[in-house]
Every structure is written in C-alpha cells, then in structure tokens.
Fold:
Amino acid sequence: MIALVDVNNFYVSCERLFNPYLHDKPVVVLSNNDGCIISRSQEAKDLGIKMGQPLFKVKALLKKHRVQVLSSNYQLYADISDRVMTLLSEFTDIQEVYSIDECFLNMDGQDNLGDIAHKIRIRMWQYLRMPVCVGIGPTKVLAKLANRCAKKDPYWQGVFLTNNITKSGMHSIMRSLPIDQLWGVGKSLSLK
Structure:
C-alpha cells in the first residue's frame, strides 16, 4: 500500500506558523512578482478565489472580505518542506518526495494503516503545526484519489483508505470525479 501525505494550503500554512493573527482568516499568497494567487486558505477558497487567478481581477473581492494578501517567501517554504519530509521519513524506509508539500510513503508490510495515518496527522501538527491529509491506496493514482477524498469530505477527518470502503463505494467515488481531475491520467483522457 502507498500513502500520499499532502500539507493543506502549504504556503498559507507556513505563513500561519509564524503569524498566528492569520489563523481563521482568509489568506492568499502571491507568485514571485505578486501577479497571481498561488496559495489560498480554506476561508479564501470559500469566497470563490481561484488558484492562479490574477491579483488585479480580484482586488475588490479581497478588499471587501479583508483577505490578507502576502508575497511568497520561498526560502521559508523550502525550510518547512525539508522539516516535513524529514519527519515523514520516520514512517517508512521508502519515501518519494513528489512536490514541496506532498510525498508518497511505501506502507507495504505495515499493519493498522489507519492508525499510522492518524499518527502522521497528529505528529505533523504537534511537531510542525502543519495540517495534513493522508490518502492510502494500492497505487499512486489511488493514493492520490484517496488523499483527495480525505481533503474534500470532512467525514473522513483527513484520512482515507481505499481498503476501508466497499468496491461499489469506491466505484461511486470514481464516477463522481470528472476524468480531467484524475491525477496522472485525466488530462489526456478527458479529450476522449
């Protein structure tokens, strides 16, 4: 089995680590030249602010809702990412860093995967104050899908294991997902 661990709203989470005032407020982080939005808190997402949206197109919305607008700090994000990946490496001998805020962990041979996933979430919060979601499946594609379920549906409390759901339940989840949203597969198949 493979786990995908993903830090929620990574750049915003890093900024909140050093500025508690930002907790529970709508926050966006901007690209290098402060031209586009590259990270959003859940509160900002709930306002309809989109990833990659040019700043000038949403300035009025940001002002209206008192959204905190921050320039990116890539040195900080790289440092926190290193700490995240180091902490996650304690859960497996085989780790594949996929991006600055997510990695795959080989969980083969481990029992109680749900308990381990919850322990990952707890430890990431206790040691680094980083909120994460964990998805576990037999392949990277299904681990990524499981992570999406863990993140999008509060029922799962940030952890989703594909082997804890019936086959028909998994098929229902897959049917509800637009094909272009399926990681590693979707973009090329959506045209068909």
User: Anything to note?
Assistant: DSSP finds eight helices and eight strands in the chain. Residues 113-128 form the longest helix (16 residues). Strands lie at 2-7, 27-30, 37-40, 68-71, 95-99, 102-106, 132-137, 159-161. The chain has a mean pLDDT of 87.
